[in-house]
Amino acid sequence: QVQLVESGGGSVQAGGSLRLSCAASGYIQPCMGWFRQAPGKEREGVAAIYTGGGSIYYADSVKGRFTISQDNDKNTFFLQMNSLKPEDTAMYYCAAKGYGGSWYREANYNYWGQGTQVTVSS
């Protein structure tokens, strides 16, 4: 069984930074992703990392501002968020999947954390 627990959300002003963490237990899946869902909007993929080869992907909306990474033991994953904008306000989720399927499609992910709220004020 895989369990994912996010932390690190909070409230910041535009231009600020936050670092989200995802602690993974159980069998570490090949791909770890971060998704977000704003009120009234669909959940969208933000970033993903393939834990074995290290391939990394970002949504266009966060490229150059967000960085996904993993720690050395590969059990904790991070999303460093810089230059935050009010439109980044959302519930952020950590998710895990196998090798198949696109990184940005939530339907491809088997495991999800409970989410952590990020609020960016202007």
Brief digest:
The protein has 122 residues and is mainly β. 0% of the residues lie in helices and 50% in strands.
Task: Offer a few descriptive terms.
0% helix; 4-stranded antiparallel β-sheet; 7-stranded mixed β-sheet; mainly beta; 122 residues
Note down, in words, how this protein is organized.
By secondary structure, the chain is mainly β. Helices cover 0% and strands 50% of the residues. It is built from no helices and eleven strands. Strands 2, 4, 5, 6, 9, 10 and 11 form a seven-stranded mixed β-sheet that branches. The chain has a four-stranded antiparallel β-sheet with strand order 1-3-8-7, with no helix packed on it. Strand 7 (66-70) and strand 8 (76-81) form a beta hairpin. It is globular and about 40 Å long. The termini are far apart. The model has no long low-confidence stretch (mean pLDDT 95).
The outline comes out as globular
Beta-strand residue fraction:
over 45%
N-to-C SSE string, H for helix and E for strand: EEEEEEEEEEE
Gap between N and C termini: 40 Å
Low-confidence stretches: none
Task: Kindly state the percentage of residues in helix.
Answer: under 10%
Number of strands: 11
Task: Give the topology, please.
Layout lengths: L2 E5 L2 E4 L4 E8 L5 E7 L6 E7 L5 E3 L7 E5 L5 E6 L8 E8 L13 E2 L3 E6 L1
